[in-house]
From TrEMBL, chain A:
Taxonomic placement: Bacteria, Bacillati, Cyanobacteriota, Cyanophyceae, Oculatellales
InterPro entries recorded: CO2_hydration
Source organism of the structure: Shackletoniella antarctica
Protein name: Carbon dioxide transporter
From TrEMBL, chain B:
Family designation: Belongs to the complex I subunit 4 family.
A Pfam family recorded for this sequence: Proton_antipo_M
Domain of life (superkingdom): Bacteria
The name this protein goes by in its record: NADH-quinone oxidoreductase subunit M
Organism: Shackletoniella antarctica
Length: 378, 534
């Protein structure tokens, strides 16, 4: 008699328990007293910071259109001596972080917006806006004629400024609302937090993403409503992909050697995003969280500050603690996004739909296998 | 006044012993610290009256004691002993400051620390050979107890090994002293540089060999060093600081004071061999340090290497090199104390000194960034990076010895390079990379939270670092005290150099050039310190 090994159950994914949790309207993050406190508290401060980021991104997109030396782009149009001094003293929001995120999205692309920005329709609109902007600038017109790809790429970047600003506008309000709901006792557990975020994402899912710039009294629509770009699929999903998953290898403090093939040649296999970030060497992976952590530090709710104060080194290593909490909260946002993106309702009884849902989540879980998912369970 | 340096710590001992009721750690610390601060005040007074142009003993005190034996209570202070006395009190204070407040048997611990301080001060001050021996032996017992009672897991083994080695060292030194005095037909053991002048060279060499082995054990020099790494590893941090910073210096002090000072002819005869011995010790210490995975052992082996420089400089015995012996003793005392102190902080915080598991301690948020910076400063000083005391001492050693023993000096310079190698290995392993205090595993682990180091624990390291930099930038603050004393030690060598015919068989081909070079240095050295600086 020949003994053969039992066939591997193809349905059993190494992270099957997480797939089941997501299908069961739970979260990737365990529900515990401290996790609730950390997630809601950090999302509150994140909401405050996102509000500032969002306003600045939209200001840059609208008012710094093709300004080639945008020295005062972080001032939202209000340049005064006290503000300059505060800026140089670094007593300010690190708007650079928002730009890192924007550039990461631009670099990784994805979604219909990326496709639209490469379309002829966009190029024509772009040329019209550029021509209007450069009407009185002969040297730049000459340069544009010589290097016709440069300015359109700048305009694409400005589109991403605007799109990320619009996305974060929604997310900022959502996180502040979440904090208010938590304070009022309407949201208590982690699954409820995830459900709240999911509901917010779904509610805004069809919001149109548009961008127009006014030059000499004429408005130039660069992202017209007719392009059919929407909040969830064309901005939120590429954002999650670019910032949570892929990230950028070179902005962290860990040095990667591209020549030694330490960085995949395939951008799709990048794992430097927020879900993979190592909070210990701050900025160890992905967009350097340091700047964001510094910003959030100023807006922590009192209960979270007290919680940080009571453990380990108190507030001496608060940026590491913020990064850990932030990562936990991002697993909640990821849970909400994945549940929102399920191809079929999570509670469907149709076996085909159930299999499709399972396969969809299994694909994402493959990518999360090397993330900090296992650490946030501890 | 010199007796005060010996008596004040003993008064502290008395207060500790008779203190009524349970002696709290804090009280014991204050009493001990006050004693040592008082000795520093006395030293400051002495320094203010110290005549820099006198080469012999100053502030001499003489009290006849057991005259038939030739033992008298004779004390004297000169440029060789003054800096060492200061560092004795200073590092004693550091040791008291960093002592764990939760320590058991508080009374005994601080009594022993003060007895060591008193005995070491006595040894540095003694101007009578037997008196030196008594103090030299007196310091062994408290140190043995400090290792044996408050040491690590193998403290019994380490303490016994230390005791056996250093007791043997004491016997050899006593034998040499007795031989020296009896053979020269004297009845007094008072220090006299002309004591051996009439002895035949063979007898002088025999006596010197006994002294060299005796003090070589204490320094320690290869192959008599094996007690040191064990003692350091098992000793608590304050004891390690004292051991490396002060007690090893008794060995080098003894070599210079009694070997070179009392037996100059024999010293000259053996000098090339001593220089070679120094090379072996330096290279052995450095190579052994490279192989270590225990931070404390690495620093201990580095001590063996760095004490070899003192022997090289003493062997060359040029004006510059003898100043270098004092400078190297002090700078090594400060640097080794700093390094042991920092290793102690790392151990206290992480629970390990194992270089195979420690990583990333420079992490600014969760690691020990200040300790890491101090450690980098300490290892840079040890490796002789300019701007710190280690550079000055090594430069003086090499500059002073090169023309006499060029080959040996070059080999010692290689040892200096190796210092950079093993300390960079230490810093690279323990302080860079991702923070870790345990071997990597596949199981997910919570991010490490190390307790933060308080400013209270950082302060002594900062103080030592300031001194290391200060002496690196202003070496004459230290060298000025020793100039004239070391010149006196150099005198027999000058006479010997001029009388080439007497030892023509030993004089190497390089020596005429050496004379030509060293002669103009001496007059230049006397009025000014400029010659020490490049």
């Amino acid at each position: 008699m020949i003994n053969t090994l039992p066939a591997v159950d193809a349905a059993t994914h190494p992270l099957e328990s997480f797939i089941q949790k997501l299908l069961g309207a739970e979260a990737l993050l365990p529900d515990s007293e401290t996790n609730r406190l950390e997630v809601v508290g950090i999302l509150k401060s994140y909401g405050v910071v996102l509000d500032a980021y969002s306003k600045n991104l939209i200001y840059i997109a609208d008012h710094q259109f093709l300004v080639l030396f945008p020295f005062f782009k972080y001032f939202n149009g209000k340049v005064t001596l006290p503000q300059l001094l505060r800026h140089w003293w670094h007593d300010r929001i690190n708007f650079e972080y928002a730009e890192y995120c924007m550039k990461t999205m631009l670099w990784h692309g994805g979604g219909k917006m990326d496709e639209y920005l490469d379309s002829d329709d966009f190029l024509q609109r772009c040329e019209a806006a550029v021509a209007a902007k450069l009407r009185a600038n002969l040297p730049m017109r000459a340069l544009h004629a010589l290097f016709p790809d440069f300015l359109p790429e700048q305009v694409r970047q400005l589109v991403y400024y605007s799109a990320l600003g619009q996305f974060w506008r929604v997310m900022s309000d959502l996180f502040i609302d979440l904090s208010d709901a938590y304070d009022e006792g309407k949201v208590i557990t982690i699954p409820e937090v995830v459900a709240f975020i999911k509901a917010g994402l779904v509610a805004a899912a069809a919001n149109p993403i548009t961008y127009g710039v006014e030059i000499d009294g004429t408005t130039y629509d660069l992202l017209p409503k007719s392009a059919g770009l929407t909040f969830l699929m064309d901005v939120a999903v590429p954002y999650v992909e670019a910032v949570f998953f892929r990230g950028t290898p070179f902005l962290g403090t860990v040095s990667y050697n591209a020549q030694a093939n330490q960085i995949s040649a395939d951008q799709g296999r990048f794992e430097y995003g927020a879900l993979y970030a190592d909070p210990l060497p701050i900025g160890g992976a992905g967009i350097p969280p340091t700047l964001l952590m510094q910003d959030m530090r100023h807006y922590l709710p009192a209960y979270l500050t007290a919680f940080y104060q009571s453990s380990g080194r108190g507030l001496d290593d608060v940026r590491v603690k913020i990064c850990q909490s932030f990562q936990k909260s991002m697993f909640c946002v990821t849970s909400a996004s994945l549940q929102g993106l399920l191809p079929h309702p999570a509670d469907t009884q149709d076996p085909g739909e159930r299999a499709a849902n399972h396969a969809f989540l299994a694909g994402w879980m493959d990518r999360l296998a090397t993330s900090r998912l296992d650490v946030v369970q501890l | 006044m010199l007796s005060a340096l010996i008596l004040i710590p003993l008064v502290g001992v008395l207060v500790l012993i008779v203190w009524p009721g349970k002696l709290e750690s804090q009280t014991a610390k204050i009493i001990s610290s006050v004693s040592l601060v008082a000795t520093l005040v006395v030293l400051a007074l002495l320094a203010s009256r110290f005549d820099l142009t006198t080469s012999g003993f100053q502030f001499e005190e003489l009290l006849p004691w057991v005259e038939p034996l030739g033992l008298s209570y004779r004390l004297g202070l000169d440029g060789l002993s003054l800096p060492l006395l200061v560092i004795n009190s200073l590092l004693g204070l550091v040791a008291i400051y960093i002592t764990d407040p939760q320590l058991h048997r508080v009374r005994l611990y601080y009594v022993l620390l003060l007895v060591i301080n008193s005995a070491v001060a006595g040894a540095f001050l003694a101007a009578n050979l037997l008196l030196f021996f008594i103090f030299y032996e007196l310091e062994l017992i408290p140190l043995y107890l400090l290792i044996a009672i408050w040491g690590g897991a193998r403290r019994g083994y380490a303490a016994t090994k230390f005791l056996i080695y250093t007791a043997l060292s004491g016997i050899l030194i006593l034998g040499a002293f007795l031989g020296l005095v009896w053979l020269s037909g004297n009845s007094s053991f008072d220090y006299d540089s002309g004591l051996a002048a009439a002895l035949p060279l063979a007898q002088q060499i025999t006596l010197l060999v006994a002294l060299l082995i005796g003090f070589g054990i204490k320094v320690p020099l290869f192959p008599f060093h094996t007690w040191l790494p064990d003692a350091h590893v098992e000793a608590s941090t304050p004891v390690s600081v004292l051991l490396a910073g002060v007690l090893l210096k008794l060995g080098t002090y003894g070599m210079v004071r009694f070997g070179l000072g009392l037996l100059p002819d024999a010293w000259m005869a053996l000098a090339p061999w001593l220089a070679t011995w120094a090379v072996i010790s330096v290279l052995y210490g450095s190579l052994a340090a490279i192989a270590q995975t225990d931070m404390k052992k690495m620093v201990a082996y580095s001590s063996i290497g760095h004490m070899g420089y003192v022997l090289l400089a003493a062997a060359a015995s040029t004006p510059v090199s003898i100043v270098a012996t004092v400078f190297q003793m002090i700078s090594h005392g400060l640097i080794a104390a700093l390094l042991f102190l920092l290793v102690g902080v790392v151990y206290k915080t992480t629970g390990t000194r194992d270089l195979t598991v420690l990583r990333g301690l420079l992490n600014p948020e969760r690691g020990l960034p200040f300790v890491g910076c101090m450690m980098i400063l300490g290892v840079m000083a040890s490796a002789g990076i300019p701007g710190m005391a280690g550079f000055i001492s090594e430069f003086l050693v090499f500059r002073g010895s090169f023309l006499i023993f060029p080959v040996q000096t070059l080999f010692c310079m290689v040892g200096s390079g190796l210092t950079a190698v093993y300390f960079l290995l230490l810093v690279n392993r323990a302080f860079f990379g991702r923070l870790a205090i345990a071997p990597p595993t596949n199981a997910p682990q919570i991010d490490i939270v190390l307790p933060s180091v308080t400013w209270r624990d950082r302060a002594p390291a900062l103080g030592l670092a300031v001194l290391i930099i200060a002496f690196g930038l202003q070496p004459n603050w230290l060298a000025r005290w020793s100039e004239h004393t070391t010149l006196a030690l150099h005198e027999p060598y000058q006479a010997f150099m001029l009388d080439e015919s007497r030892f023509s068989s030993i004089v190497s081909a390089t020596q005429p050039a050496a004379i030509a070079n060293t002669s103009p240095i001496a007059p230049a050295l006397a009025p000014s310190i400029d010659v020490y600086l490049p």
